[in-house]
Amino acid sequence: MTAVFSIFLLCLLVITAAAVIRTTNLFVAVMLMGIFSLLIAVSFFLLDAADVALTEAAVGAGISTVLFLSALAALTEEERKQAGGRVTALISVSITGLLMAYATLHKPDFGDPSAPAHQHLTPWFMQTTAEQIDIPNVITAILGSFRGYDTLGEVFVVLVAGIGVLFLLSSPRPSSQDKRSSEGLKHYLIPRMIGRLLIPFILLFGLYVQFHGEYGPGGGFQAGALIAASIILYGLLEGQQRALAVLPIKFLRLLMASGALLYAGVGVVGILRGSYFLDYSVLAADPVTAQQVGIILIEAGVGMTVTGVLLSVYHAFVARGKLQ
Amino acid sequence: MILLDLFHYWVFIAILMMGFYTVIAKQNLIKKLLGLSLFQSAVFLLFIGIAKVDGGTTPILHPSISTEIFSNPLPQVLILTAIVVGISTSALGLAIVVRIKEAYGSIEEDQIQSKDESA
User: Fold this and answer.
1) CA nearest to A47, candidates B62, B40, B46
2) Domain at B2-58+66-118, CATH from 3.40.50.150, 1.10.287.3510, 3.30.870.10, 1.20.1730.10
3) Is residue A24 part of a domain?
4) Which of A127, A200, A226, A320 is deepest in the core (most CB within 10 A)?
5) Is A41 on the interface with B (CB under 8 A)?
6) CA contacts within 13 A on the Cβ side of A316
7) Which residues contact B26 (CB under 8 A, 6 or more apart)?
8) Domain range spanning residue A284?
9) CA neighbor of A55 nearest in space, from A70, A33, A37
10) What confidence score (pLDDT) does residue A176 get?
11) Between A65-72 and B73-104, two packed helices, what is the crossing angle to 10 degrees?
């Protein structure tokens, strides 16, 4: 039954992707992309990746769509029809696709437990998580501890991308503020009432995901996206100014920098206590507790940076679109 | 059964190639960014598909879960961080597109190029 459902979902994914490409209205394309993200999140869930599904649903279907739409507000909505010249692209894409399809004939079967991907490091991760870190969610253990360097790098990529957006979009443009567009959906009763009901629960769920990430699906990345989504929803309903009153732009910039700093700081404390960078086992007397403390701290850092970056980027785009 | 076993890979290839086609063939910069997102999502789908083990569950070790089979957590970790990095890079791309629109008055590649050449 699940197999039939997942095949149905995969077919829907291909159809949605084709629709994204075919439509010439960019607004429609962005909305379809949101549907695509939601469908792929369900597929991830069916493939046992609860953490990834949570992230994709919050980031792909929620925040990404809002960012594209607020950028579209500063751009034109219609894609200009282009004349010909696409045959070469079509041929080269088809050939590449067929070559890849040929390569799949020798891939291990889908779901095969003896596939090479499941042999090398994974059994070690599963075993060592229980012994050395002792938290139920293996994904959080790998993300925070075993692959701590990688995650640190990712956090800094997010931070740098956020700084880049702020550099590109926050240059002053002398123009009068349009009061009308900053009001959000104040005059639309139904979305506003439903949104108001949802916001506290999204926020609460974000905090739950942040602090419960060691035990269930969740962690800093998902929590950051969820908290940012709840504030963005508030901004969409009540206008950007109200959202800025809750979390001012200065606070957001401080948040994104201090999150990355907290993460790197935990690593430095490891050095100061006579071990390696990002070795958490020296943070407390008992190495297992120390690992858990380290993971909780760096997850907090991740959550702060992700929330800060996503919200500052959102505000930058909305402000830019309004000034046009 | 070969169809069922390989169907997941073929969907990956289809979406990947659609994204690739959009990036190289479309003139509109927003469309290109959407194509890039499709391309990226296809890679996510491949990794999560590789992580799946028949009869497995989400890799959360809990006494109440009796099964011994878990799906592979490693590809899931890689994709988890990649999704958030993906949105950040998309946002950076969008910011560049917004600035291009302000500088050139267009987000169509050929118009931007002809403006560059005439300048």
Assistant:
1) B46
2) 1.10.287.3510
3) yes
4) A226
5) no
6) 28
7) A21, A79, A82, B32, B35
8) 139-324
9) A37
10) 46
11) 0
φ, ψ of residue A157 to 5 degrees: the values are -60, -45
pTM of the predicted protein model: 0.91
Q: At A102, list the tokens.
A: 């040929």
Mean pLDDT of B35-60: 91
List the beta bridge partners of residue A137. Answer: B60
Residues 6+ apart with CB under 8 A from A30: A65, A68, A69, A72, B30, B34
The pLDDT > 70 percentage for chain B reads: 94
Give the side-chain half-sphere CA count within 13 A for A184.
19
What part of B 80-119 touches A (C-beta under 8 Å)? 80-92, 94-99, 101-102, 107-108, 110
User: For testing the chain B interface, which of A42, A102, A122 should be mutated: the one with the most B CBs within 10 Å?
Assistant: A122
User: B38 in contact with A at a CB cutoff of 8 Å?
Assistant: yes
Please state the ipTM of this predicted complex: 0.93
Distance separating the N- and C-terminal Cα atoms of chain A: 51
Kindly report the nearest CA distance between residue B69 and chain A, in angstroms. Answer: 9
**And the tokens for A107?**
């891939």
The low-confidence residues of chain A, meaning pLDDT below 70, are 83-85, 172-184, 322-324
Q: Is A80 exposed, middle or buried (0-12, 13-18, 19+ CB in 10 A)?
A: middle
- Cα dihedral A155→A156→A161→A166 (10° resolution): 100
Residue A237 is encoded by which pair of tokens? 């309903």
According to the model, what pLDDT value does residue A173 have?
61
> Which residues are paired to B57 by β-bridges?
B70
Q: Among residues A21, A77, A230, A319, which one has the least CA distance to residue B15?
A: A21
- In this structure, what DSSP letter does residue A108 have? P
In a domain, A69, yes or no: yes
**Quick one: pLDDT at residue B2?**
58
Give the length of chain A. 324
Q: Are residues A73 and A211 in the same domain?
A: no
Residue A280 · residue A270 · CB < 8 Å? yes
Option in A48, A67, A139 nearest B91 (CB) = A67
A121 domain-assigned: no
What's the token pair of residue A208? 């739950």
Spell out the residues 6+ positions from residue A2 whose beta carbon is closer than 8 angstroms to its own.
A46
- pLDDT above 70: residue B5: yes
